[in-house]
From TrEMBL:
Keywords: Apoptosis, Disulfide bond, Glycoprotein, Repeat, Secreted, Signal. It is found in: Secreted. SMART domains: TNFR. It comes from Sapayoa aenigma (broad-billed sapayoa). This is TNF6B factor. Pfam families: TNFR_c6 (PF00020). Residues 1-15 form the signal peptide.
Amino acid sequence: FPPLLLFLAELVCDAQPTYQWKDTVTGERLTCQQCPPGTVVAQHCSRDRPTVCEPCPDLHYTQYWNYLEKCRYCNVICGEKQVEVQQCNATHNRACQCQEGYYSDMEFCIRHSECPPGSGVKKPGTPFEDTQCHSCPPGFFSPNSSTNPCQPHQDCEQQGKVTNVQGNRYHDTLCTSCRLGRGNTTQGPAVEDDDCEQAMIDFVVYQNIPIKKLKRLQQILERSPKKQQPWTRAAIQEKFRTFLTQKKEQHYEVTKELLDALHIVKLHSIEEKVRERFLL
Ligand SMILES: *[C@@H]1O[C@H](CO)[C@@H](O)[C@H](O)[C@H]1NC(C)=O
Ligand SMILES: *[C@@H]1O[C@H](CO)[C@@H](O)[C@H](O)[C@H]1NC(C)=O
Ligand SMILES: *[C@@H]1O[C@H](CO)[C@@H](O)[C@H](O)[C@H]1NC(C)=O
């Protein structure tokens, strides 16, 4: 043979794997060609005839060159929280993946975790990995359990307002248009001013009040029985703030009641701060 033909023959041999087969009639050892993916052996080769391959029937496959006599059954079944990502075809078994919002953990699809209040998503969950959370960095907050990233605090100056309460991990910075005290006393804020009333509520609620006293304040104003849920400070603050804001909107004298309550609970320094800041 000319060298080029030999070379080509070798290439073909390399591309087409073979197997050893003992002819059942003659007992002769033969080297047969394997069948390509998607097919199996219909007839093994004989001395004068190459291997005969046949395609896999529906719902069956072979993924590799082979000398199987039967195709494999597509035996993967997608579960309840799974979606099919590879259809069963002649060359591939069916393949499944956890559906949106779930990740796989030992055979099971488990819902992505939410990040607790004060922390947010650092890396969203994938079909293979749970959500990764991190505590909100300075300047960011997340008020509730969520699969959202931490949000940046708002910038009051940018809105032409002043910062009333500095934000933390759990809540946003609160701005106000109320002209807060300190120096410019000639035009003090009118407490009747809705904006100022809200500002005062926000200011008091988000003071660093010990949980016990915060609960006492809440009881006094809500006139609620003593039994309370074992909530976190952040949760109590949110609830208390909502309550006071509603009360304000119903035109109760929240400002006065709040000051009285501060007095009863002996939060004198805070009471002072409020009087000074809001010129009460
Ligand atoms: C089977 O699916 C695979 C992957 O999606 C694809 O590459 C291949 O061409 C398909 N085979 C047939 C016979 O349709
Ligand atoms: C969580 O907080 C975000 C931002 O304040 C809000 O849009 C969302 O509705 C809240 N989700 C729940 C379940 O409270
Ligand atoms: C207080 O008044 C002075 C002079 O009118 C003004 O320049 C300053 O911006 C005011 N400060 C605040 C906090 O309103």
